[in-house]
Amino acid sequence: MTPPARPRLLPWSSPEGKPCYLLSEGDGPVTRQANAVEHAQLASGEILLRHARALLRDSPTTPPELRFLACCLTDALGDSLRINRSRGDLLGCGHPEPAEGELSWPVDAFLPGGD
Questions:
Q1: 63-90 vs 29-58: helix axis angle to the nearest 10?
Q2: pLDDT tens per residue, range 22-51
Q3: What are the C-alpha distances in Å from 54 to residues 50, 61, 62, 83?
């Protein structure tokens, strides 16, 4: 059995928070589990996005509600970006790795008073 061209980034981390990779191709149990987890993560993100749009459109929200919503959306975005990175890696798409704690875009541009 030949190893895969690129390892697959799995949609979960080790207990230490490190990324996990799959070093085989095909339709084995780990591949099927990873596909199911990714599907569930994307479906949850879609549901959360609909909820966020409705909450922001239809009702006044309190700061704690907005903070909770932001936390949930941040988690969903992180899941989506991890899936995107995994799929990009499998397709051979290169991507720069930001340094630890560094964003790949200037967040100041989106904050009040930013340029």
A1: 150
A2: 987 778 999 999 999 999 999 999 999 999
A3: 6, 11, 14, 26
